[in-house]
Design brief:
single chain, 125 residues, mainly beta, seven-stranded mixed β-sheet, four-stranded antiparallel β-sheet
């Protein structure tokens, strides 16, 4: 499984960015896909995820109402639309996936068996 994330960059506070993640293979191979982020010196934290079977979504409290996750099954892509960005959203964002669905808590980094390379998001004040 290969994940390719893109779309990061520099944006002013209040601005928007859209992250994209391309997954190899068929979307039917995945139980869940999502995004984590990490600030240097801190642990990775779950930003959002989406389950392929029923479309269930999760958002971290710190992004609720500002970020939207979506998927395009035909293209094997997921997206993270980030609006009303804040300087504290500055981090490296990682696309993640799990194929099997056996984990209890998908807000934990250890629950994912595939990680893409990170894409830097920088929000200036």
């Amino acid at each position: 499984v290969q994940l390719q994330a893109s779309g990061g960059g520099l944006v002013q506070s209040g601005g928007s960015l859209r992250l994209s993640c391309a997954a190899s293979g068929s979307s039917l191979d995945y139980y869940i896909m999502g995004w984590f982020r990490q600030v240097a010196g801190k642990e990775r934290e779950a930003v959002s995820y989406i389950k392929y079977k029923d479309g269930e979504t999760y958002y971290g409290d710190f992004v609720k109402g500002r970020f939207t996750i979506s998927r395009d099954n035909a293209k094997n892509m997921i997206y993270l639309q980030m609006d009303s960005l804040k300087p504290e959203d500055t981090a490296v964002y990682y696309c993640v996936a799990d194929r099997w669905g056996f984990r209890q808590d998908y807000t934990l980094a250890a629950s994912y068996d595939s990680w893409g390379q990170g894409t830097q998001v920088t929000v200036s004040s």
